[in-house]
Design a protein that fits this description.
- The chain has 474 residues and is mainly α.
- It is 74% helix and 1% strand.
- A two-stranded antiparallel sheet has the order 1-2.
- Helix 3 runs antiparallel to helix 16 and helix 13 packs antiparallel against helix 17.
- The protein is globular and about 60 Å long.
Length: 474
């Protein structure tokens, strides 16, 4: 009995490695694979359209720039569609199988890519990428739902950051290995075969070791399960609360979350999609020609995820409130890049520009401890649904931003036009974070357990509590 109590105390303080950590590690691997599957075409398409650049023994396709752009964007057409349904399905039926089916189907589609290209050329590959986007649209809402069920409040930022660092790790891995794979005997099809096969392997492991909630896990100890459920204020309940759509869409903190997510994606995707063109035409340095430089910003971002997480954990233990922590790190992650973007607009030195780009992308990782965990803060029960809504809106910005750049930049060698692009992105970063700091909340909202009456909501707000227990004041 004494040993049991000691074990519970260890878990309460945060055990070195528990089942919750295993779940987050598997989610890290999931996002690593997901991003490898997302970017595999962007790196393989070079070899697919220029066989002499790697292994000439494989088919070459005569796709022009318009066709290549169409293929690279087609993933997001499907990706946007399943964001909100993905959150609702994960919430209602459990995120484990939603995640499993989504990644497994996407992996199988990757393995079929070379065959589809051979029998149907680019139209069939385009259709396949749309389906892959549909499959991956459920991933982020599902991952958010799982984190909301598995991460104790005190560890939410840390475990969430570790999990989402997989997105950058997968990008670095694919960028760093794609050239080697394409030049090997496997050729460019190997890029799709390997990334797809790893996804299938992950799906098998997840089927046996993944769980939607601590209550559904067969491996978790009674002590760890009690620690998690006590921390997040949840109890085993077979009745799923109805989604309070009206309350969600009349919530000021949630609207600030939507806007900060949209602002983030505008700036982030402008940075990652347009900077290489800017370097090629203004700085006369093509970053895409160098795999190390292409992967460097992502690598730094991946490393800084852990640095910021350590700092946040240290500050939290010293008494920094959750609200202050979210807003401080979000400010670092968005206002820092805003300043760097302005600097990029004026620099003419290629080395300085690369340094600024790397710093900008790197410190943007601080947002994993900011707005990106705020969906769970507002509503652990509907975190997946909230992520689906904000990620859907944000990815619309990801599509619009490059179009706006194309409208503004009519001469790619005109530094003044590029400066306007960077200023617009910096303004988005600045305004998004400002609204988040002013209107964002970290307290669990009264509608977390489903629709509530106006009278009940007012009473709970006056008492400073939500229906799942006390909440933190902001």
């Amino acid at each position: 009995m004494m040993a049991k109590n000691r074990r519970f105390e260890t878990d309460e303080e945060g055990s070195l490695f528990g089942i919750r950590h295993l779940q987050c590690f598997l989610l890290f691997l999931c996002l690593t694979v997901a991003y490898a599957l997302r970017v595999n075409l962007s790196v393989a398409i070079v070899a697919m359209t220029n066989a002499n650049s790697t292994n000439p023994d494989f088919p070459e396709y005569t796709w022009n720039e318009k066709t290549k752009s169409l293929l690279l964007s087609s993933f997001f057409w499907g990706y946007i569609i399943t964001q909100i349904p993905g959150g609702a399905i994960a919430q209602k039926y459990g995120a484990k199988y939603c995640l499993l089916i989504g990644l497994l189907l996407c992996s199988l589609m990757a393995i079929l890519t070379p065959y589809f290209a051979a029998i149907g050329d680019w139209p069939l590959v385009c259709a396949l990428r749309v389906v892959q986007g549909l499959c991956q649209g459920v991933l982020f809402p599902s991952v958010h739902t799982l984190i909301s069920k598995w991460a104790p409040v005190d560890e939410r930022g840390k475990l969430g950051t570790y999990t989402y660092s997989g997105t950058q790790f997968g990008t670095v891995l694919m960028l760093g290995s794609s050239g080697v794979i394409a030049s090997s005997s496997a050729g460019w099809p190997g890029i799709f075969y390997i990334s797809g096969a790893v996804g299938v392997l992950w799906s098998i492991v997840w089927y046996f070791y993944g769980a939607s909630t601590p209550a559904e896990s067969k491996s978790i100890s009674v002590e760890e399960r009690k620690f998690i459920e006590t921390s997040i204020g949840s109890t085993p309940n077979t009745v799923k609360p109805k989604t309070p759509w009206l309350a969600i869409f009349t919530s000021i903190p949630f609207y600030s979350l939507i806007f900060v997510h949209c602002a983030h994606n505008w700036g982030f995707w402008t940075l990652l999609t347009e900077i290489p063109t800017y370097m090629a035409n203004i700085l006369k340095k093509d970053i895409k020609s160098n795999a190390v430089l292409s992967a460097l910003p992502y690598f730094v971002m991946c490393l800084l995820c852990y640095v910021f997480s350590f700092i946040a954990d240290l500050l939290f233990k010293r008494g920094l409130s959750l609200s202050t922590s979210r807003k401080v790190f979000n400010t670092i992650g968005q206002w820092g890049p805003a300043v760097a973007l302005i600097g990029l607009g004026y620099t003419t030195d290629a080395t300085l520009a690369i340094v600024l780009l790397t710093i900008t992308v790197g410190i943007n990782s601080a947002t994993y401890l900011g707005f990106q965990m705020n969906h769970i803060d507002l509503s652990p029960n509907f975190a997946g649904t909230l992520m689906g809504i904000t990620n859907c809106a944000a990815n619309v910005m990801s599509i619009i931003a490059p179009l706006v750049v194309g409208f503004i930049v009519t001469d790619e060698e005109n530094a003044f036009q590029w400066r306007i692009v960077f200023f617009i992105s910096a303004a988005f970063f600045f305004t998004g974070n400002l609204l988040f700091c002013l209107f964002g909340k970290t307290e669990v909202q009264p509608w977390n357990n489903g629709p509530v009456s106006r009278r009940q909501s007012t009473r709970e707000a006056e008492n400073g509590t939500a229906r799942n227990g006390p909440v933190e004041s902001t």
